[in-house]
């Protein structure tokens, strides 16, 4: 039986603490759309997405209205396009991106993920063509998101792919210079990418997933922050306990929405991804949670320890609330999307080096970070390599979403708007990494990968 106090607490979380379902994401298998002829393959992709997801937005809106739970985004993830497009003889994969974009527009979702390639141990010809197509694909579409997985704990890191992604990010930024390099906000470079991630820009529908699936991403940094404020100066044991209890309540709401969407759409329920994903709104910040633990500013000494506690407690609370917790589940630290991190970065306390340390203990990596437009491609590639090494050695997902914003300097603020927020342009180290990146080849898998 649900106690009236629980209902009142949930209403307060939604009304005053920014609790929401961040996304309902439908994963769709496109492998059966493969065809030797480009136009036919693109048409197959379009028809499969539209027929599969035609009711997704309407169903999300109906659940939102009926249960009073905000559902911010309805999205789609698809099979990595490099796998589907390989059947064609096309050299340029831009038409596939256009087909995805049109399908997303016609079903009413705001993003579609899966313009992706998995190259952690090497390239197929199709992988190379897809990566070469990424800059224009993201620059010339509004809803398409891309990702490339360059490493895993079992395979090591494909440094040739890392080098290519440095060049790819620079080109994507140049093609969208008039919007601050916005195409880069739709591109993620992964190590140990997961197949059931509902969050953009890194979502794709893994080859081990079913024909269709519903994955839900839940958020609620404001709820956790409010819970911590009630503790005062309690010890860390109490801090961890209240975060776990709060994460449990948040995840239960996600489970309810996921099961309801699955039932109404006739699509299997996959996972609830409990990730504390911030927004630029005041009161919806991961940085402010860390500061509530006693840090004067996010990024000062102690930040990594505070984030480790938060990430662990969120996972422990979430897994008790749902039989299917997956995706990335933990705490996100996207700089431009978190008003507390924006402030900390502008103050100079939160640096790239500190963010890299923080990624050792949280869900993802260097996320939504703007750097000067003249940052060399090799420096960007080296940042990707560092982040991939953290993921590879620690057997966790890490990622880089970085924007070399054209014609900007350190201290400038790049406005992306909406949930993407504003990115302070942060300094990078200027000594060159070019010779290191140009070695190429494969960084071997660590001993941690030899578990059989």
Q: Can you characterise this structure?
A:
The radius of gyration is 21 Å and the shape is globular. The mean pLDDT is about 90. Strands 1, 2, 3, 4, 5, 6, 7, 8, 9, 10, 11 and 14 form a twelve-stranded mixed beta sheet that branches. Strands 12-13 form a two-stranded antiparallel ribbon. The chain is built from 15 helices and 14 strands. It has one domain (about 1-450): Anaerobic Ribonucleotide-triphosphate Reductase Large Chain (Alpha-Beta Barrel), CATH 3.20.70. It starts with a helix and ends in a 9-residue tail after the last strand. It is an alpha/beta fold. Helix 2 (about 40-55) runs parallel beside helix 5 and helix 5 crosses helix 6 (about 125-140).
In short:
This protein is 43% helix and 18% strand. It is built from 15 helices and 14 strands.
Name some characteristics of this structure.
452 residues, alpha/beta, Anaerobic Ribonucleotide-triphosphate Reductase Large Chain, twelve-stranded mixed β-sheet, two-stranded antiparallel sheet, 43% helix, 18% strand
Largest sheet: 12 strands, mixed
Strand content: 15-25%
Element pattern in H and E = HEHHEHHEHEEHEEHHEHHEHHEHEEEHE
CATH class: Alpha Beta
* N/C terminus separation: 46 Å
Structural class: alpha/beta
* Average pLDDT metric: 91
- Structural domain count: 1
| CATH topology category name | Anaerobic Ribonucleotide-triphosphate Reductase Large Chain
Question: What is the approximate shape?
Answer: globular
Contiguous low-pLDDT stretches (5 residues minimum) are none
Overall CATH architecture:
Alpha-Beta Barrel
Overall strand count: 14
Helix content: 40-55%
Query: What is the number of helical segments per DSSP (H or I, 4+ residues)?
Result: 15
Rg, alpha carbons: 21 Å
């Amino acid at each position: 039986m649900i106690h009236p106090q629980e209902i009142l607490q949930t209403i307060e979380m939604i009304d005053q603490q920014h609790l929401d379902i961040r996304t309902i994401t439908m994963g769709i298998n496109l492998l059966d759309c493969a065809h030797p002829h480009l136009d036919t393959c693109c048409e197959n992709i379009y028809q499969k997405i539209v027929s599969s997801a035609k009711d997704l937005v309407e169903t999300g809106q109906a659940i939102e209205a009926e249960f009073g739970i905000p559902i911010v985004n309805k999205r789609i993830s698809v099979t990595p396009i490099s796998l589907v497009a390989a059947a064609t003889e096309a050299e340029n994969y831009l038409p596939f991106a256009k087909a995805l974009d049109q399908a997303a527009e016609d079903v009413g979702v705001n993003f579609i993920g899966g313009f992706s390639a998995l190259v952690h141990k090497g390239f197929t010809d199709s992988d190379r063509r897809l990566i070469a197509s990424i800059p224009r694909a993201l620059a010339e579409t509004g809803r398409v998101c891309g990702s490339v997985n360059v490493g895993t704990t079992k395979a090591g890191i494909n440094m040739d792919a890392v080098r290519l992604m440095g060049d790819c990010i620079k080109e994507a930024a140049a093609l969208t210079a008039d919007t601050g390099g916005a195409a880069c906000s739709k591109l993620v470079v992964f190590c140990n990418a997961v197949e059931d991630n509902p969050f953009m820009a890194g979502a794709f529908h893994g080859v081990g997933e079913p024909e269709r699936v519903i994955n839900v991403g839940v958020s609620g940094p404001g709820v956790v922050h409010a819970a911590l404020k009630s503790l005062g100066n309690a010890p860390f044991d109490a801090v961890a306990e209240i975060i776990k209890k709060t994460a449990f309540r948040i995840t239960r709401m996600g489970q309810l929405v996921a099961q309801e969407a699955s039932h109404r759409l006739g699509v299997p329920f996959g996972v609830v991804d409990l990730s504390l994903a911030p927004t630029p709104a005041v009161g919806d910040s991961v940085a402010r949670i860390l500061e509530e633990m006693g840090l004067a500013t996010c990024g000062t000494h102690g930040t990594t320890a505070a984030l480790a506690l938060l990430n662990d407690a969120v996972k422990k609370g979430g897994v008790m609330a749902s039989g299917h917790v997956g995706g990335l589940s933990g705490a996100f630290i996207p700089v431009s999307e978190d008003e507390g991190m924006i402030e900390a970065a502008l103050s100079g306390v939160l640096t790239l080096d500190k963010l890299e340390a923080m990624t050792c203990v949280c869900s993802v990596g260097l996320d939504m970070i703007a750097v000067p437009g003249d940052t060399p491609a090799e420096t960007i590639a080296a940042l990707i390599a560092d982040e991939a090494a953290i993921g590879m050695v620690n057997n966790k997902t890490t990622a880089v979403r970085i924007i070399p914003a054209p014609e900007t300097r350190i201290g400038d603020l790049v406005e992306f708007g909406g949930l993407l927020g504003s990115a302070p342009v942060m300094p990078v180290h200027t000594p060159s990494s070019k010779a290191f990146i140009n070695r190429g080849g494969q960084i071997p898998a660590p001993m941690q990968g030899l578990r059989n």
